Amino acid sequence: MTYRTSLGVAVIGAGRMGADHVRRISEVTSGAHVAAVVDVDIDRAKTVAADVEECAAYGDIAEAMASPDIDAVLLASPGVAHEAALLTAFEHDLPVLCEKPLTPDAASALRVLEAEQRLGHRRVQVGFMRRYDHEYIKLKALLDSGELGRPLMLHNRHRNPSCPPDFTSAMLINDSVTHEMDITRWLLGQEITSVTVLRPRPSGNAPEGLADPQFVVFETDGGALVDVEIYVNARYGYQVQAEAVCEHGTARIGDRHDMLVSTGGRWGGTVTPGFVERFEEAYDREVQAWIDATRRGEVTGPSAWDGYAVAAVCEAGIRAQTEGRRVEVELADRPALYI
Amino acid sequence: MTYRTSLGVAVIGAGRMGADHVRRISEVTSGAHVAAVVDVDIDRAKTVAADVEECAAYGDIAEAMASPDIDAVLLASPGVAHEAALLTAFEHDLPVLCEKPLTPDAASALRVLEAEQRLGHRRVQVGFMRRYDHEYIKLKALLDSGELGRPLMLHNRHRNPSCPPDFTSAMLINDSVTHEMDITRWLLGQEITSVTVLRPRPSGNAPEGLADPQFVVFETDGGALVDVEIYVNARYGYQVQAEAVCEHGTARIGDRHDMLVSTGGRWGGTVTPGFVERFEEAYDREVQAWIDATRRGEVTGPSAWDGYAVAAVCEAGIRAQTEGRRVEVELADRPALYI
Amino acid sequence: MTYRTSLGVAVIGAGRMGADHVRRISEVTSGAHVAAVVDVDIDRAKTVAADVEECAAYGDIAEAMASPDIDAVLLASPGVAHEAALLTAFEHDLPVLCEKPLTPDAASALRVLEAEQRLGHRRVQVGFMRRYDHEYIKLKALLDSGELGRPLMLHNRHRNPSCPPDFTSAMLINDSVTHEMDITRWLLGQEITSVTVLRPRPSGNAPEGLADPQFVVFETDGGALVDVEIYVNARYGYQVQAEAVCEHGTARIGDRHDMLVSTGGRWGGTVTPGFVERFEEAYDREVQAWIDATRRGEVTGPSAWDGYAVAAVCEAGIRAQTEGRRVEVELADRPALYI
Amino acid sequence: MTYRTSLGVAVIGAGRMGADHVRRISEVTSGAHVAAVVDVDIDRAKTVAADVEECAAYGDIAEAMASPDIDAVLLASPGVAHEAALLTAFEHDLPVLCEKPLTPDAASALRVLEAEQRLGHRRVQVGFMRRYDHEYIKLKALLDSGELGRPLMLHNRHRNPSCPPDFTSAMLINDSVTHEMDITRWLLGQEITSVTVLRPRPSGNAPEGLADPQFVVFETDGGALVDVEIYVNARYGYQVQAEAVCEHGTARIGDRHDMLVSTGGRWGGTVTPGFVERFEEAYDREVQAWIDATRRGEVTGPSAWDGYAVAAVCEAGIRAQTEGRRVEVELADRPALYI
């Protein structure tokens, strides 16, 4: 392989996330270019495509995927549209980086799994970008080394300065805690077997009727206990922290800082204002890793199985939240393709 | 008052804790002296008393308390002996600093409350020494200031390097988590209304049969959610941490350090080796505060009510641990004396 | 401009630094490709060029620059070869990213300045990559904001785990402290007016005869005092720190960490092992910024004047080191092109 | 020895420092009581003495020292009065805790040394209280352990929020940097051989005419290089920091914090507001250590030699400041009594 070969990518979905990936592939990462932008709103696709040299705009996914200029697909449309797009990509045997969620529920995720199995090889990488964050990578390396013994507990903090106006109590589980579901499974190499959702009296910062914060507890098939504080109206900034408590020691990430200032009677630093600032580099690395693997003809990163497993934990989480009790996760057997 | 007046203290219990208090009153704090050491094992009392000038040794509590040299009592005998000693002190209307627990169970604690009420004024300070720790004091001041809004959650970590050989799963609740029960009530100014105890797969560091670590969740009558990680065989050191999550910000204590060393590829500091190093100054301040208040004719600090309330939470905790479910705390009405 | 346009870069010098830039432009950054590798050792040029698609190899700089495929030059040959290469690039009016030093001494640097002035516009960016480090950028933004008042002092630490076997006492100034010379000028927006070099008894880690560590003091034309600890055999890791002391506060960078581990009686993190790990992202951003500016037809970043000024401070530093006294920096007037 | 024996202390000087020591001995430390307060202003002595049980007030030092109630002397009068008071104490062979400075200049300090030598045994402890600070103690223990190799450099920061209105440029050396003179000698176990004083452009916070901040450099007879930043109008708080750079590692103190708060976009803690908050515990431990040693019939802690050596370094420092050059310290031979 020589360096100049460039991967032609079709970005599906020209919303905020899609446009951001177009910018990333065009200006930040190396080895790929955006060859097509696809959106059911063809005008929106054209607007985004207009900034990119020799980039086509499509209103129809199948048409775009049929183009010989397309080597790979980045799927950034709403979750409800993922299943159809993935099945179409499978027809063209195209590698896909699928933004989370894989699909909105476990049943549809299972259908994607089955389709990919029929294809006979993995084609999907799911966009759980935290796995590409330097800090989580360091933590996983430490856990995998066994230096601290077996992980017993994992404490997670997930704080957003504010949430969109239409955010619901269920979305704290489905949109926010999904990250911790994936990262728990990945860090520990274990499946989540039960979910409990506890709810303190809501913060005065939260809109009327929103159960915010929540405190979620997972049990895993390896006997670990995991807790997640999710608070989406913390006002003061964006914080994602994880502390692994192992037999012989603990490790904590999420306290990174770069400049300490002392003035006016206080010392300290700034809190990351939002998830973009916190995880922008992880997004960059995720896409670069996907490009590099795709150019090598490989599929790495979070699989469709990971997308399905998180969907199953979400369903248990919503039931746990609604019914106010511990709910066990029902998980299909893991197909050979994903082992 | 002039400075030379010295409070004559009878230290009851000549074990490790009692002897340490004798040393503290004699060598560290100001304004009091040990006038008597009392132990059912009179020889042990004599040994400890021998190092102290003009200090009597007694085998009988009532006899010691009858002495005109005794102005106050420091009760450091085993918990089962506390009720009788406290009732005797009440007969002589003597102020008592009573090491925790007040008594071993809620029923006996309630009898002490009733006796103190019959006396008509508070005489007992319970030895919840964390309330005298600089860090907890700072955290309480911040919470009380309202600067961060209402506390929503309180995350606690409590790690010991090792536990005594005869430690039981119940003692993680009764001996260790009692500190967090008191500190939760004190920091938040709220009563604990329920307890849940979760148990990950035990650490390989724990003796066979000991459920270590455990993860305990409290709900409070103010709507706060409190979690406590208790791990008594953490090997690497002693760590007590608390993080308050409030509406507009968070505050964390327990990361104090004094010297940062960089060498051999690593930077950092030492972990406090044990609870003595971590809380020695709190013990010193607790006893000094008790001496100072007693000399002023006042009773301050944790009351018998606090001792009773923690006993009630302990009983719920043990049931929660045994039955594997959330258990509500049954608490008597708070008598006027303790409001 | 559309995104696919790619800048053709000639990388001059196929040694370690040149090869690393070839990799960076090919695999990491966006918007440019390596069109030629140039080295007096043509075989070395060919070896490095072989991994890159459609990339020529040259033994002669003038020949490479004459190629229509070359839009810009990255100069990574030894410092002694820079003057000739820069003058050749000026003949072809090519933009150059010139690795530090601009040239090995102030007289030759001045000749480059004069040649660039004859050209009538800036073409050279000097590779002082610390200006692209996130932490230094934050510190400069804070100083420029005026929030802390005027900078009074700047304390710098510069520690390497080890130095090459042929490192000399002069090279601590010429190779290492040059970074602090540039960063001082950039952070403060002031010129350095004098240099003093102090030498404690050498470390036992240093090779026989090497004055390591050294402690260098600058005065600036803005009245600031700057000290630099340089220690190139610190063994334990690579540390670069800066603390600005301003009228109303202080700011410190260089303590960044990402994971805190507590085990075996100690807590802490890892020290960055070397300058690559510490500044790799700064190199990436430097080259990306140069590519982006070049594609916009601009020259940004450290100028030839900055390269000259540092060369002049180096000469004063070497005299200060040799003569054991404070030496004033002799600086030409700043030409209009660099204001 | 039994615990009740109480040392009768005469506190000389009823100003702010003296009154604070009276409070300390009466309310904080154990094993001593204030038996006399002495001040040339007898009314001031009476006022301070009035709060203390059975405490005499004197206007004359000799008279006080002649009293059989006096076992030891705490000298807290102005430095100019120290020599006479010390000589009188020697006549009565009384142990003295002498607040710094020992005397205002090297010549008078030398006379005290000679008088103490005639006495034939040490009687004086000089009040360099930083030696009793937990952090400095930890740092010294680490340096003494040899774990990091030989100390090469010591970087010190000394920042006060503000200075008294009549503070002079010389007092930054004589009053403030004296602490670093002592602590350098103590930490390294080396004598200071030269002083250089550098002066950046004064801060706008400093009163007109005051050279603030200053940057002081010591060389030692062990080949170490020591720098001290002294800034007495830093506004934002009180900070004392020290970083030892040794052959195989570095150690830093002075960053201690106890509560981390995240709110309003920032995380961090409070800066110690003043030297009382920073060093109050060191004062307490200093006096307790002096009481304990005195009761054992010993003299420990900083000696008259230490007081003299610091006076000699101060004289060199003032000359260095005035003459703008490196000045060598002239030190008498160390008498056998102080080895």
Automatic annotation (TrEMBL), chains A, B, C, D:
Residue ranges of domain Gfo/Idh/MocA-like oxidoreductase C-terminal in the record: 140-329
Superkingdom, natural source: Bacteria
Gfo/Idh/MocA-like oxidoreductase N-terminal domain sequence ranges: 8-128
Pfam families xref list: GFO_IDH_MocA, GFO_IDH_MocA_C
Keyword list, A-Z: NAD, Oxidoreductase
Documented EC number(s): 1.1.1.18
Reaction catalysed by this enzyme: myo-inositol + NAD(+) = scyllo-inosose + NADH + H(+)
Enzyme class: oxidoreductase
HAMAP family attached to this UniProt entry: IolG
Subunit record text: Homotetramer.
Homology family: Belongs to the Gfo/Idh/MocA family.
Annotated function: Involved in the oxidation of myo-inositol (MI) to 2-keto-myo-inositol (2KMI or 2-inosose).
Protein name (Swiss-Prot/TrEMBL): Inositol 2-dehydrogenase
Native source species: Streptomyces graminofaciens
Gene this protein is translated from: iolG
